[in-house]
Write a structure and sequence with these properties.
With 281 residues, the protein is mainly alpha-helical. 36% of the residues lie in helices and 0% in strands. The two termini are 34 Å apart. Bound molecules: iron/sulfur cluster (2 copies).
Length: 281
């Protein structure tokens, strides 16, 4: 019998905290970030300026029409729980609106850093849950605890932490972990694919178990009906990728934002920690 790809780990509660809770946030993504119309946002907007659709209670005025308006950027965005963490825990429920400009700017900077740290945590927690990665478990646990501590520090300390140094260490271990998972399911069954052929590629219900798609540009490709056990999607661009009838329940290193950007249906199977987007229904 095949060994399970994933198993439970001690950080499930922490992973739950990395899901967005917009009702506990002060619209940080809709304010702190730069965004452009060409990426599926309502207009070109400078970082630090609130979106014109952001209401005074931080809800979105056009939330129910985002799909209709084709605002894919708004629909897909996911902050890994940084918004509520920064609003409620780091700034004790205060909103940028009530702050002097320099303090509001600090809050935006902290949000961007916490987003990056939470994204790293997301991958580390999944890595620790991978059966094939247990030889790295001490290193993974050490990194999770270190980053958790960093996120619990003061705004000044969060802003001065060396995220690039974390990234280098984490990228290295995630690469090793991804390779171990790929080997554990028999490696790339299709052989080495030419990356330039991923864009818009029809995979024809292939068995892509163990395939390494990390950082691959797979926009508008067709993975419908494919077998994707232990397939590595770390950082892959899945915008408009068709995941209908595909089984991703044992794929690795997927994020909610990738899923939100892709197309799927009620038969698409997802890992337990990811949610089926409303617009797939
Ligand atoms: S920053 Fe996160 S929690 Fe806040 S509104 Fe945006 S997605 Fe929601
Ligand atoms: S349209 Fe709504 S969800 Fe999109 S940035 Fe503006 S307020 Fe946020």
């Amino acid at each position: 019998m095949d060994r399970n790809i994933h198993m439970e780990n001690q950080f499930e509660d922490l992973r739950a905290q990395l899901h967005i809770d917009c009702g506990k946030c002060c619209g940080l993504c809709c304010t702190a970030l730069y965004f452009s119309k060409s990426e599926g946002f309502p207009s070109n907007k400078k970082a630090g300026k609130p979106c014109p659709n952001l209401l005074s209670d931080f809800r979105c005025k056009i939330h129910s029409q985002l799909s209709q308006e084709g605002l894919k950027g708004c629909i897909a965005y996911d902050c890994f729980g940084a918004g509520q963490k920064v609003t409620q825990m780091i700034y004790s429920g205060s909103a940028w609106k009530t702050m002097p400009p320099d303090r509001a700017q600090e809050m935006f900077d902290v949000f961007i850093r916490v987003y990056q740290l939470h994204q790293i945590l997301w991958y580390l927690i999944e890595a620790l849950s991978l059966t094939a990665a247990q030889k790295h478990k001490n290193e993974l646990k050490g990194l999770i605890l270190k980053i958790q501590t960093t996120v619990g520090n003061s705004p000044a300390d969060i802003c001065s932490c060396d995220i690039e140094a974390y990234r280098k260490r984490v990228n290295h271990v995630l690469k090793e972990v991804g390779d171990s998972v790929g080997e554990s399911v028999g490696g790339n069954k299709t052989g080495k694919l030419d990356e330039s052929e991923y864009l818009g590629r029809q995979f024809g219900k292939a068995d892509l178990s163990g395939q390494d798609f990390s950082m691959a540009l797979m926009i508008a490709s067709d993975l419908s009906g494919c077998k994707l056990r232990g397939t590595n999607f770390l950082g892959a661009d899945l915008r408009d990728t068709d995941l209908s009838n595909a089984d991703l329940s044992e794929s690795i290193f997927l994020t909610q934002m990738q899923i939100n950007e892709a197309k799927g249906n009620k038969h698409t199977r997802l890992p337990d920690w990811l949610e089926r987007p409303d617009h797939w229904k």
